[in-house]
Amino acid sequence: MSKSIEEIQKEIIAEFSDLTDWEEKFQYLIELGEELPTYPDEKRTEEYLVPGCQSKVWVAPKLEAGRLEFDADSDTALTKGLIAILIRVFSGQSPKDIADASLSFIEEVGLAKFLSISRRNGLYSMVQKLKGYAEKA
């Protein structure tokens, strides 16, 4: 049985609480981004591009056995880390759970507070893109 969105968010909050300053948190996000599987070149299209991000961010959904899985990539290290953390929360979940999810971890780990306004807007654009896929599924 896969973990719920809530359980995954709690894990992320715990991981971030072990990091003492923002430099460590940024480094951790960048490392998460580096762990993403290679994104397929044929999906680097307008269709999968997240609107409202300064960086280029692509997210492609796959529906398998009633659960959504996501591939993602970005052209900047920090943004790649942000999308990595979001797909960690959402991949393997049902479309309904994704659409209904409240992402408390974004506030709790301080991402909303620490990111620049343009990055924060980009983060929320990524969330909207992921939830949009869930609503269509």
Automatic annotation (TrEMBL):
InterPro entries: Fe-S_metab-assoc_dom. Transmembrane segments: none annotated. Residues 14-131 form the Fe-S metabolism associated domain. Pfam families: SufE. Gene3D superfamilies: 3.90.1010.10. Belongs to the SufE family. This is Fe-S metabolism associated domain protein.
